[in-house]
Amino acid sequence: MNSVITGNIRPTFFPGQLNKNSAHFLFRVRPFSTAFFRRNLTSEIRVFSTTFAETKPTAPVAVEKEDSGGATGLACPICYDPLARISDSPLYVGATAGSNLLCNNCKKTYFGNQTHLDLVASSGSKQYDESMPLATEFFRTPVISFLYERGWLQNFVFSGFPGPEKEFDMAKNYLKPVLGGNIVDASCGSGMFTRLFAKSGLFSYVIALDYSENMLRQCYEFIEEENNFPKDSVDAVHAGAALHCWPSPSIAVAEISRVLRPGGVFVATTYILDGPFAFLPFLRTFRENIMGISGSQIFLSERELEDLCRACGLAGFTCIRNGLFVMISARKRSS
After folding, report:
1. Residue 65 in contact with residue 71, Cβ under 8 Å?
2. What angle do CA 218, 188, 95 make, to 5 degrees?
3. pTM score, two decimals?
4. What radius of gyration, in Å, describes the C-alpha atoms of the chain?
5. What is the pLDDT of residue 210?
6. pLDDT over 70 (residue 32)
7. Could you tell me if 309 and 253 are in contact, meaning their C-beta atoms sit under 8 angstroms apart?
8. How remote is the C-alpha of 325 from its chain's centroid?
9. Highest mean pLDDT among 12-21, 102-111, 118-127
10. Residue in 3, 87, 100 with CA at minimum distance from that of residue 51
11. Other residues' Cβ atoms within 10 Å of the Cβ of residue 125
């Protein structure tokens, strides 16, 4: 059984041993401060909405025996110890309302609502919140979240992005070595690729992560609108059109590398301003100024992305180009 979770969370998430069933997850997380764990892994994620969806894998998937004591596969964002479920509410799409999770170390309790689990370190605070760079906060707004799949995303084709279905097929080619395992859809937005991963039945866990709670609400709503969408309920990480949105790609990719199993695959799409743009004077200075103001990234070459992956412990870098669009893939070295 597979599951999908949409999570509006600013906490630590561990997509390791959720339960005997496989799962798909969507979480709201800081784009640059996400730590995942497999088995006893702990992932530091800022997430706010969590929903699960059930799918049927195309091949049997070996799942470890569920831990005793209500183990969830999630971890406390404060002390990184595993969180235990202290309520009977299941962890899957539309059923997280009333889900209470307890850290047995620091004794903090985290609560869920219909669409997500709030697992951030500041969970439960009434007044305190943290703002992110302009480019990140932009996608937290309800208007942009609503428009993202209703016109915004469609404009990516002008930069060479091939469209969701084609891009999904391209990603699957890179992900063949880990089919049947777990996948994280980082910066999932409104969940377009998360839903494709979940409905494909190719993965036991699908974990969708995003910083924007409004994006995750859209993700939840899209799941609810789909007929026969699996709703019960990390070998790979996918980040579609996301790398350039992360304030610190090196921190994010380092975390991705840390949580991937040996041989695990990272697949991402973004854009590169090369070709005729490379001849623009002061381009690198202009890039630094833009990044300093907006918090978003501008990549100028394939080699830059390859160096990023290599510096973060990933090997076997490959890429596919179409205009400004680029899909990259790299793998964690086998031990």
Report:
1. no
2. 55
3. 0.69
4. 19
5. 81
6. no
7. yes
8. 20
9. 102-111
10. 3
11. 9
Distances (CA, A) of 93 to 2, 81, 219: 12, 24, 10
Q: What angle do CA 122, 90, 239 make, to 5 degrees?
A: 60
299: DSSP letter: B
- The answer to which of 12-16, 49-53, 57-61, 76-80 has the lowest mean pLDDT is 12-16
Q: Strand, coil or helix: what is 72? A: strand
Six-digit token pair at 7?
């999570």
d(CA 138, CA 152): 13
The dihedrals phi and psi of 327, each to the nearest 5 degrees, come to: -110, 125
DSSP 178: G
Which residue reads 């695990």 in tokens?
264
Residues in the chain: 335
313 by DSSP, 3-state: which?
coil
Question: Model confidence over 189-215: pLDDT tens digits?
Answer: 999 999 999 899 898 878 778 878 899
Provide the 10 A C-beta neighbour count for residue 315.
12
d(CA 184, CA 36): 9
